[in-house]
Write a structure and sequence with these properties.
735 residues; alpha+beta; Arc Repressor Mutant, subunit A; OB fold (Dihydrolipoamide Acetyltransferase, E2P); 6 domains; five-stranded antiparallel sheet
Length: 735
Amino acid sequence: MSLNENQSKSLTRKQILLEMMKHPGYVPMKIKEIITVLQVPASDRQELEELMGELIKEGKVIRTKRGKFAMPQTFNLVSGTFQGHPKGFGFLILDEDEKDIFIPASGVNGAMHKDRVMCRIVKQPTSERRAEAEVIEILQRGPESLVGTYQENENFGFVVPDDQKYSRDVFVPKKLSKGAVSGHKVLVQITNWAEERRNPEGKVISILGHVNDPGVDILSIIYQYDLPREFPKEVMDEVEAIPGEISESDKRGRTDLRAVPMVTIDGEDAKDLDDAISLEKLDNGMYRLGVHIADVTHYVKEKHPLDVEALERATSIYLVDRVIPMLPHKLSNGICSLNAGVDRLALTCMMDIDSHGNVQSHQIMETVIHIDERMTYTNVKKILIDEDEALKERYKDFVPMFETMRELAEVLRKKRMKRGAIDFDFEETKVILDKEGTPIEIKPYDRNVATRIIEEFMLVCNETIAEDYFWQEKPFVYRSHEDPDPVKIQALTEFITNFGYKIKGVAQKVHPKDMQKVLDDISGKPEESIISHLLLRSMKQARYTSECNGHFGLAARYYCHFTSPIRRYPDLQIHRIIKYNLHHELKGKKEASLIERMPDVAKHSSLRERRAEEAERETIKLKKVEYMEQFIGQIFRGVVTGTTSWGLYVELPNTVEGLVHVNEMADDYYIYDEPGHRWIGEHTKQIYRLGDKVHVQVIKTNTMTRSIDFRFVSEEEFNKQEEAKEQEEVKEQEE
């Protein structure tokens, strides 16, 4: 997607048309009447008709049988993206609303997952249930190709899609199978779309390999989510012309900070190092924190092939066995990576911070820097927490700086907590693979003092930059996190009242401080897991916007992403804006074009971020299933993390999650209490609810559906297993 000036102009004209039709006084008009009202010159009539055609395809406008144009809502219609379900029904995902609309199987009418559809509302929402609709028109078909497993029959074949949201298999005539056999992972192109009572038809266009071949599982997910694979030739040609070292001419006009002691702190396996830190405590007691970010825009020029491709990708994607970078490795791991011992170009934010965590002054500047040490989270933690004498001696010149870092990070964290920032401490997953891509260990990601130091420094830098540009009223990309849905908060409040807690601001407007207060109150309590998960689910997803809407979760009025331009396009875009501003170029046509461009950059980046997150989750889920195959029959401790009408989800200490299906709860007849998020045994009165500590046995894994099935077992069974393990270990030692 290249967001050029012509696209921006057409988007602006579309917005004018939509605003006119949204007006309460608007009545459906024919094209001639719209031309008269808007005083469109005769020379622009064809363009207007083309724009109306695009709006109709997008589902934002409809054309009546009499040729009049109106908003769909006028006729109780609504458009959006169809999200399928394995059981045949689906949901209409609205473009600008987090609420979705239920579509029963009888109302799908041939729509497939990811199709753009127009629907008629058949049932209005109530306090108990969502709205219901039926598909009346498919505006635009979804992806023309999808990934699945080929199954061979005598005279034909069919492809079972990997994405379970496609409820129908794809029929493939034998002559169009490309020689695929049962068990092959294939890319199939749709040649005839599904109809109400007929499956879609397709042809195999690529065989990815057999399901059991190493690497095919991740490759399938890459194709499933249409993730980028190779950089275009024109991009690589541009990269080849970029030097591997910075020249003297590159350094001219920049502030020279090479004498300032600074370090990078990242994970052991990180290769794209885009942020460095310097810190000193001044004589007046202030902290002078420098956050130095790789100056990527020095090499990625606006609207050049490299920039166009970076925007199209919008983010680096971190799969379990590989990284799909936003920028080619020569940049991301080379000249743009802040490697120790070499000069690098940076965009620096220097902040003077007082003892209460307030940024009293700051300066943003183009700099040339020299990293003294490439530190890891593990080693900084060993220095600060474990008092590792060997490491303290090795890095003795920097130990005082690390101590000051810990001190300032604590000051900043206290300030955030005081204003009400919400701090969810959920464990992320780290998957360890062998050379063949087989998972050999699954464990929680280690968050320690060093990771928290970097988090706090990046947060304060991002806030400082966002506030600066908000008050300058410059075009910008903000990171926004809107207030939670009041309906969800009300339901959450009713539930936590059962535990003796309440959220104060529900009657008016909930404040993040009210939610943080609940998290503080439940800390260490048995119900902590259940309530913290529900708090998280009640909140909206953060996204990129061109307006400053604030960040609810951080309790911040101003927030952006500035610190990772190697791997996020919004950060790179912000760097470009800052540099135009520093060079007094952010005015006139340049400023006007950026104002038009920012909403589209923000929306596209948000969509690409969502795609990356889904793909990353799927690869982790897949490897978890593969890992747990070896433990079928074994019993583990776990916590109930989800309740649904078909069973309960249980998470193990290593972050693996599986389902206890209601059919596996055979010791009683269980009734689902949805408002209470629990299952109740009719005779035994046994209750399973969110947050309960349980014991489960692994009974089945399925790499096709990426699912793990558990069943509940007693503590006695778990203890027997542990005793047997101990006896086996003793026996092995004796032998």
